[in-house]
Each structure stands twice: as C-alpha cells, then as structure tokens.
User: Fold this.
Amino acid sequence: MTNSIAIVGCGLVGRAWSIVFARAGREVAIHDPAEGGVEAALAWFDSTLPELAESELLAGCAPGEVRERIRAAPSLEAALEGACHVQESAPERVEVKAELYAALDRLAPADAVLASSTSGIPASAFTEPLAGRSRCLVAHPINPPHLVPLVELVPAPWTEPGVVERTAALMAEVGQSPIHLAREVTGFVVNRLQGALLAEAFRLVEDGVCGVADVDAAIADGLGLRWSFMGPFETIDLNSPTGVRGYCEMLGDLYHQLAREQADPRRWDEAIVARIEGERRAVLDLGAVPDRQAWRDKRLAQLVRAKREAGERLGD
Amino acid sequence: MTNSIAIVGCGLVGRAWSIVFARAGREVAIHDPAEGGVEAALAWFDSTLPELAESELLAGCAPGEVRERIRAAPSLEAALEGACHVQESAPERVEVKAELYAALDRLAPADAVLASSTSGIPASAFTEPLAGRSRCLVAHPINPPHLVPLVELVPAPWTEPGVVERTAALMAEVGQSPIHLAREVTGFVVNRLQGALLAEAFRLVEDGVCGVADVDAAIADGLGLRWSFMGPFETIDLNSPTGVRGYCEMLGDLYHQLAREQADPRRWDEAIVARIEGERRAVLDLGAVPDRQAWRDKRLAQLVRAKREAGERLGD
Assistant:
C-alpha cells in the first residue's frame, strides 16, 4: 500500500480536495468520467495555486510543487492504483453513487478507504450490497474544502470503527478539522445546524419582523464574529462567570419559550422565496453572482489566513 | 440641544458603549448609582484604551483623546444634561428599569432618546406609563459593543418612528451596524437566531449524534467562517448559480424534513446540562474562564481589525 489519494469526480469539490491533499505532501490521482472534466480541473489548478500561494494557503509549498503532486489518471483503474484513500465527489444522485461504488469496491486496493463527499446521501443508501462496505463512509466537506477545514465523518451502520479513525487521522494530518458522527442522521450535523438557523431566518422575514439584510447583519456583524473562532457551546460557556451551567440556569426558561415558538415547521413556499429573492436581487443582480462568489472565496482565504495568524499569536 | 451621550449604568455593557461613542468623537457622561461603579469604569478605560489603540480600534484617536471625551457625572441629573441620547445599561430587572425610566423621562432633555441595552425585556414592559414613552426603545448590543457592531433596535408599540430612525442614524454614524425590528418579539432577532442554533446543538448532544466539541468545530471551522462576513441568506444566495431561488428549489424538501424533525422543543434539564458542563470542564477549568474571556476579546479585536482590512481591500 502506498499513501496516495484518488480523487474521483473533478468538479468544484473534487478539485478543492486535490489541493488539500497535495499541499500536505500527498500524491494525488484525479479522474472524471465526463468529457473534459479532468482538463478543466487542471486549468483551474494553474490559475488557483498561485493565488493560494500569495495568500500563504499552500502550507509553504510553491504552486509548482503542489501541481506536480497531482496527476491526471487515464482511467478509474489507474486513478485507484496504490491509493490508500479514495475521495469520491461524483454527482449527488444515489443511482450514480451506487454504480460508482460497485466499481470502486471492485477496483480499489483492498485496504483503501472509500469516502464520499456527499452533503446529504447517507453511505448506507449506496454501499449496502458491497463486499467491502465496511470500508465506506461519508466525509462531507464544506465548500470549498481547501479554504474551510471542517469535514464531517458519517459512518454507515456497517462501517468499521477503524475506518472512521483512519479517515479522521488522515484529515487531521492534512490540516482539515474532522468531526465524528455516531450515526447517520438527516442532513448530518452541518446542515442540521444550518437548517435550524435558516428556518428561523425564513420565519422572521415571513412574519415581517425584519428584512433579509437585517438577518444577515445580525449574523455577519453580530453572532457570526465569535462563531468564526469559537462554537456556540464555547460562546455560552464564556458568557457566564459560572460557565455553561450558569448560563443555562439564567436563560433556560427564555430559550425554552423560544424553542416552543420555533416548533413551527414551514415549507418554503413561493411567497416567501419570492420575497427573499426580491430583497437579494435588489442588492445583487443574478448576473453578478459569479463575481460575488469570487469575492466570497477571496474573503474566505483572507479570513483563514488571519485566523491562523491569530491562533499562532494568541492561541486557539 | 447638544450632541452628547449619557451612559447610565457602567457595568461591562455601559463601559463598552462609552468607548463606542467617545472614539467616534462624541462627548460622553457616565453615571452609575452603585458605590464605586464609575471609578471601576474609569480604571477599565485606562487599561483598555491603550490595547484598543494598539489594535487600531480607536478610529485613529489616541487613548488620551478618547479618555478626555468621557466624564464621570456626579449625579444622574448631571449625566443627562445636554444629552441627545441616553444609553441605559442598568441591571436586567424590569422593576429596576421601570423606576429608572420614570427618572430618565423626568430629567432628560425633552428631545433626548432613551435607549435600553436590555437583551430581553421589551421596552413596553417598563415605559408604558411615561409621558415621554414615545422616545423610548430598545437598542440591544452584542457584548462587547466596542468590538461587535450589531445593534438591534426594537420599538415599543408607542415608540415614534422618527425615534427609531434617529437612533439608527446615530448608531451608523458611530460605526455600529443597526438593524430594525418591526415589533417586539420574544428574544428579539439575535437571541431568536442563537436560540434556534442552540436548540439543535443541545439536541445533537442529547441524542448522542456527536459531542460538544464536534458541534463547536462544525461552526468554528465550518459554517461560522462565511457567517462572519456574510449572513445566512447571502450564503445560500451564492450557493446556487440561480441564487436563493435555485437553492430553495434544490434543497427545500430537505430543509422542510429537517424543520419537522427539529419541531421538538426541549427543556435544558439537569442531565443534558451536566453532560455539556462535563465536556466543557474537561477542556476548560471554571477557574480559567476569566483568562479565556480575555483571550476571546483579543481574538475578537484581531478579527474585527482583519475584517476591516479585508473590506477595504476586497470590498464588503
């Protein structure tokens, strides 16, 4: 067994994963069955790696060094050769994944882990019949993983515990921040947390309490500042001289009241979607979305760098 | 009418407000009825202002310049003299506020706005009988307001719209980020959003899906990064080539399913509080909380500065 990585599926997610592994020193083989998929990824590396080097996000490597560690594999078989970890980032359709995992399980080295980037399909939905199903799990990143370190590891009921541990160790080694779910749940952890916040955000706008920009400011100029370097539990733990227990004693009744008011699941129907769409389009034309996405990634890169520097100077 | 500011109540919140107004060039009079309250605030300015200057968070002013704009008033009456805006940061007890607002309404200049820093008591609960109740509202900051710019403005049913507008203009002028609620709701906007996230965070731990540190990492190494410079609506608007509408069409069913699963209001009972407390105390002794709070404020200061620089270089 070597320690190379196979990236299967070279869309935005697969490309970003390639950089994660290659800048950490791993040999990476990329494969995409779509016509031109690999070539587009290679062109993206050429434009993106110098920018990342400038932002000091290549772990001290030169762009060429990282680039040389990534090779385009002529076939799935060739990509899997010598891989210890396969990061699958194929389209989010269960039938696509089921067919692909049958091939991966047949072709990958026997001790390779098969990890899916899926944001919502549990591994149990596409690995059940496989001989090697115990080496399959979900390793869901937040996009793009070369900027956002969080990866949630979600085992299927038949995933071997050692496989989760190996994947967690690999992710930590390459600079990601793995979290470990005990079992498959709808939306995993990240989208459950995001969904809880979004549900209340939609309700506030739908009920006319405030506008879309007000909710965004409440997070981006308020709660989101602390949340970018501490989680919600550490935040409340530091908000009372007696820690989280004191906080819960002081505010438990308020939060229980809020939880009861918020137990109100709503569908995002046309009226609320149109309203939010209208408020967003008033500040950002749809045609300007790609430029704004580029801005977001530049801001993310700047933030990640500033956060690393703050951690080095002040501790994490 | 002058344009000076009266800070009534000089605890952590009132002190931080003093810096917000004074670094923006306003004359500030501070008052606290508690023995030694004003003196403690003055000592805090002496230690904090130089640190803020070093972090470039005094709007280009020297510490001494900001300090000179803050005067200790010998009485409530003296503090209110010539004030256009009173920022009340008294203890969070409705009877304390009711008595204080009776005095404020009697003593403050007729055209002064009376704004409460309360995080949860609606202005209608302590201003109803006042002759000047139409000039009263909530202006709730996130602590500490000299680092976190968000302020939510919450009018009582009888607050004059012009009072909300004047307060929003003042807050924007001194560099805060005001949002405007249409009406009083439990928890206002900030704690409704925080509560929604916390409720799911507590559920995930209580149900054994993951641990306290996993939830914190999911936010601090994941969702919280984008949320520190974009809100949740802008985040999803940029996550689909067709904007928020496309995002809702693609993921509306998933989020509706999550909302149904999350419509499960729970009280934070002893078992879950003890579990979270245990996981937090394993990484942070209660005795180390003050040091960690100081760390948090340093990290916040660094983040605010880095965010301002990123905004100047890349746009907001």
The first strand of chain A starts at residue 4 and ends at 8. The mean pLDDT of chain A is 97. The first helix of chain A runs from residue 12 to 23.
